[in-house]
Amino acid sequence: MNLGMPRIGPRRQLKRAVEGYWAGTVDAAALSDVARARRAEAWRQQADAGIDSIPSNDFSLYDQVLDTTCLVGAVPERFGHDGGPVDLDTYFTLARGTTHGAGDGTRVVAPLEMTKWFDTNYHYLVPELGPTTGFALSSTKPVDEFNEALALGIVTRPVLVGPVTYLLLSKATVPGFSTLELLPALLEVYTRVLDALAAAGARWVQLDEPCLGTDLDDEARRAIDVAYAELSRRTLKILVATYFSGLGDNLELATELPVAGLHVDLVRHPDQLPRLLDHLDADTVLSAGVVDGRNVWRSDIGRTLRLLGPAQDRLGDRLWVGPSCSLQHVPHDLDSETSLPAHLVPWLAFARQKLDETTLLTRGLVEGPDAIADALAASDAAVATRLASPLIAHPGVQERVTALTRTNAARHSPYERRREIQRQSIPLPPLPTTTIGSFPQTPEIRAARQRHASGQLSDDAYREFCQSEIAHVIAQQRDLGLDVLVHGEPERNDMVQYFGEQLDGFACTTGGWVQSYGTRYVRPPILYGDVTRPKPMTVSWSRYAQSLTDLPVKGMLTGPVTILQWSFVRDDQPRSETCRQIALAVRDEVLDLEAAGIRIIQVDEPALREGLPIRHRERAAYLDWASECFKVATAAVADGTQIHTHMCYAEFGDIMDAVVALDVDVISIEAARSQMDLLNDLAAVHYQAGIGLGVYDIHSPTVPSTDEITRFISQALKVLPAAQLWVNPDCGLKTRRAPEVAAALRHMVDAAHHARQPA
Ligand code: GLN
Ligand code: ZN
Question: pTM for this one?
Answer without folding.
Answer: 0.95
